[in-house]
Amino acid sequence: MTTSFQESEKTREYVQRFVGNLLGKAISFDNIEPALAESCFYALTRQEELDSPIRDQWGNWDWPFCDAQRRGELYIPWLDIPLTSLRNQIGKQQAKVAAEPLWPDGKSFALCLTHDVDEVSHRSALHTRARSIQLAVRAGQKWPGVIKQATAFAYDSLTQRRPPSSSSERQYEDWQKLEDEHGFKSTFFFFPSHPGRPHIWDCTYRFSDKIQSKNGKISVAEMLREIDRAGWEIGLHGSYHSATEPELLKDELRQVEEALGHRIISIRQHYLHYDVATTPQLQADAGLRADSTQGFNRCVGFRAGTSFPYWCWDHRSGRILPVLEIPQMIMDGALFQPNSLEYDEETATRHSLQIMDTVEKVGGCLTLNWHPNYLNDDKWWNVYKTLLEEAARRNAWGCSIKQLYKWWTAREQRIYNSLPGQNL
């Protein structure tokens, strides 16, 4: 399946919306240079992922396969740069016509904060290890694979660095306290208790499991509700198979919403497993409205060449989907894990701040993904803390996925007075 940029009402609308959103005012498609229009469509619809069958060992599109990597532009929001110049040019020419501000309250750029809750504690309980073995069996692994996987889980758990006493351990509330110091909020993506089709890489906690909080033992479901009541967002961390198989996301979303007690709108797929031809439509069918999966597992950078949100595209029907993509730029595992960048604290901080520099220059959105089960590793914690402090110093808007979605869609409605997929 290949979708080239052929002008039609829908492809014109798609490009026109993205460009207009960055400019802060409606623009005629005829005023967009043809080469820029084609670049926007190609990059944002992830055409290059559709054109190539190559994937990594986890079944994902990752940084070595990107055109931008081969051009030396992986760390640059290359699509935003000409549009920023155009925004500045139009601003000078049409000073009397006010453009919609990019972010609230005159903020210089957005810092979207997210956490994939792959584990609910850095201490792996015995029943969680037992579930990993059961999961391997249910996922159809042969016995040598089951034994290998169970051994790996146990080894990781037993050798994980731990603080000397429970009193010094950081809990999930410490993430909230750190973010709240700067007036920031974030999104916590939780995995469902019972994925419909288990995979060996799926998470193994359940909403009934007990964890340690500042106020004693609570269930994971209570943890969700406490985070939500404090003003942070809960999203869905979709299972590995849910990215490509129908109906799974609907049930997984139902499980998290029942545990939470109300509807949620955001998702990130586990392992960043994502099929550009399938996943966006499955998310839309499930009723999800914001995704933040399009990023890299083993590197940092700009998968689609932009730091701004953009609407997902359905390659099958050739239309805009009502799912807003908020791309991930920096993930902790990509900075520190083996088979990734494997940085030390100083290098991770320096490179992350360089990415922040590029986003600030175009007034974009820098999306971070930090895993709470690593919050007791000082290297993970210190880099995140430094990025928050620096973003606050630069007058960034620290927000959750839901906050960003509400702002961006309301802003677009003011620009176009219509919803995604409607005629302009």
Distance between the termini: 28 Å
Low-confidence stretches: 161-167
Strand proportion, as a percent range, falls in 5-15%
Q: Using the coordinates above, name the CATH class of the largest domain.
A: Alpha Beta
Structural class: alpha/beta
* Percent helix range: 40-55%
**Number of helices, counting only DSSP H or I runs of 4 residues or more:** 15
Mean pLDDT: 89
Radius of gyration: 21 Å
Tell me the CATH topology of the largest domain.
TIM Barrel
Name of the CATH superfamily of the largest domain: Glycoside hydrolase/deacetylase
Write down the oligomeric state: single chain
How many structural domains are formed by the residues? 2
How are helices and strands ordered from N to C? HHHHHEHHHEEEHEHEHEEEEHHEHEH
Q: Using DSSP, what is the number of strands?
A: 12
Which descriptor suits the 3D outline? globular
Give the second-level CATH assignment, the architecture of the largest domain. Answer: Alpha-Beta Barrel
Reported for the largest beta sheet, the result is:
10 strands, mixed
Structural summary, described in words:
With 424 residues, the chain is an alpha/beta fold. The protein has two domains: 1-123 and 164-424, Glycoside hydrolase/deacetylase (TIM Barrel), CATH 3.20.20; 124-159, no CATH class. The chain contains 15 helices and twelve strands. Strand 5, helix 10 and strand 6 (266-269) form a beta-alpha-beta unit. It is globular and about 60 Å long.
